[in-house]
Amino acid sequence: MKIYYPIIYEGKRPNENPLYLLSYLRSHSDIAFSTHTLTPQNMSELENSEDNYILLSVTSLSPFYKFHHLLMMLRKTFRHIKCKIIVGGAVFYILNHQDVLKHYPEITHICVGKGEEVLKAIIEKNLPRGVYSAQNFDRVQKYLLIPEFAVKDVVMLTFRDSRCSWGKCLFCHHQTRCMYPNKNAADVAHEVMHYIDAFGTRYFYFFDNHMEPETLAEFLEILFHRGYAKFHPQFYVFGIRVDGNLKALNPILQKWPKATIDGIAWGVEFYDQEILDRFKKGTSLAQIDTALDFFPKYGTVNDVYILLGLPTITQKNIAHHERFIEKQYNNIFRLMTSFFLFNDGLKISEHSDEFKINKLDYQFTLQDFFMYAVDIPPIRTVYTDFTSWDEDLQKYASRGETFLKYLSLYQKFNKIGTCPRLSFLDEKTHTILKKIRPDLYFG
Ligand code: SF4
After folding, report:
1. What's the whole-number average pLDDT of the chain?
2. Which of 63, 117, 176, 425 lies in disulfide reach of 137, CB 3.0 to 4.6 Å?
């Protein structure tokens, strides 16, 4: 049996998810298989047999057209593709699976969520064509990347999966089940030491949505104590909440000679107490300021995630938020913005009346995202268009009208680096934005 996998670049970074899945399969399955990277150049050499598999992973919308082009090339090269094609990656949380299967009939299996156990079951049990959710499979067992599938980019790490133990924010999806084994500080420190020793890895990325500073401090203490500071490993930390006990990190960061946490992502959302409380973020403005002041002295940069376009926000709230960005500008490396999208899976959907959300009968598709600029099928996303009551405008405003209230942020702050296409806006709004920030648009 042969397994083919392409490595798709998402922006400047390779999506190396297949290497994790193949390491898992090699470590936890007796199935014999060989692996082959798949590129447009070597596609015609692929052995088009029912015994073989192709793994395709895509994590976000922007690189989806590359995924599309690969499938189109396979279709063109083979007319009838006999290999089974398994697709997965975070983007499949937000796409309509029936649409995906309809527009890409060569796809045999869609994996939703963590792929390790799903892939193992599909191959070992020869599961039929269909959509498989990781939530319905066994929990992933412990494993490490193996030399055959060593990643070239950063190694992904986690203590407690991407699960968030707060889980109350009304605008956020919350995972219901933790799929990866829970690991303590010593477990993860041993993983890191292994990767440094075996592969010479230097860059690591923690994807936990909610990590305790105490656990991170304990983990760094173990590495330091074992003499690993001399290798200068660097960690990007995705999910410490601003209300975490950051002081717990002081002793180890003061000892460590060079910035070891090179970047940290903060889910600030919106700097206005009234708004944070209304959407149940559970944090305070003082905690946000303390958090942003904490890391720069240790050489760590702050990436700040802000969420614009929430229903009920007024010009007064936006002005407050804007003053915060001005005040903290030197402490911010990148401002990552997202614009609120509505779907029935969000907690806020249970409060549509309270938030004066008027759901429209239109489901955004991939074509809305790519603005019809690339030849991509109209696969529906989970996002529904809506209007919401706007106190300033004294009417129900469309997403585009709401977005224009935030225009000054885009004009003033060139650290905002997120492509507005992710916001599923109308053409008129995009035209206005493109004029003031052409740098934000790709393709
Ligand atoms: S926004 Fe962040 S803190 Fe809030 S529930 Fe989601 S992951 Fe947790």
Report:
1. 94
2. 117
* pLDDT above 60 (res 349): yes
Question: Once rounded to an integer, what is the mean pLDDT over residues 105-115?
Answer: 96
Other CB atoms within 10 A of residue 182 CB: 12
The beta-carbon contacts of 241-244 under 8 Å, at least 24 apart in sequence, are 241/166, 241/210, 241/267, 241/283, 242/266, 242/267, 242/268, 242/283, 242/287, 242/288, 242/290, 242/291, 243/282, 243/283, 243/284, 243/287, 244/211, 244/212, 244/213, 244/291
436 CA to middle of ligand 1, Å?
31
pLDDT in tens, 66-81: 999 999 999 999 989 9
Q: Which of 209, 269, 280, 336 to mutate to test ligand 1, by most ligand atoms within 8 A of the CB atom?
A: 209
Separation of CA 164 and ligand 1 centre (Å): 6
Distance 252 CA to ligand 1 centre (A): 27
380-426, pLDDT tens digit by residue? 999 999 999 999 999 999 999 999 999 999 999 999 988 888 889 99
Best residue among 161, 162, 173, 210 to mutate for probing ligand 1's pocket (most ligand atoms within 8 Å of CB) is 210
- The model's pLDDT over 184-236, given as tens digits with 9 standing for 90+, comes to 999 999 999 999 999 999 999 999 988 999 999 999 999 999 999 999 999 99
Question: Does residue 443 register a pLDDT over 60?
Answer: no
- pLDDT of amino acid 192: 98
CA dist list (Å): 279 to 94, 313, 336, 354, 412: 22, 11, 19, 12, 26
Distance 304 CA to ligand 1 centre (A): 14
Is the CB of residue 267 below 6 angstroms from any atom belonging to ligand 1? yes
Is the CB–ligand 1 distance for residue 174 below 6 Å? yes
Ligand 1, closest atom to CA 173? 6
| Structural domains in the chain plus CATH codes | 2-136 (3.40.50.2300), 148-440 (3.30.750.200)
Residue 176 is predicted with a pLDDT of 61
Of 52, 58, 71, nearest in space to 10 by CA: 58
| 166 close to ligand 1 (CB < 6 Angstrom) | yes
Residue nearest (by alpha carbon) to ligand 1 atom 5:
167
How far, in Å, from the CA of 168 to the mean position of ligand 1? 7
Identify how many contiguous H helices and E strands the chain contains and give both numbers.
14, 17
Pairwise CA distance, residues 331 & 228, whole Å: 29
Nearest atom, ligand 1, residue 269 CA: 1
| pLDDT score for 153 | 83
Using the atom order of ligand 1, give the atom closest to the CA of residue 281.
4
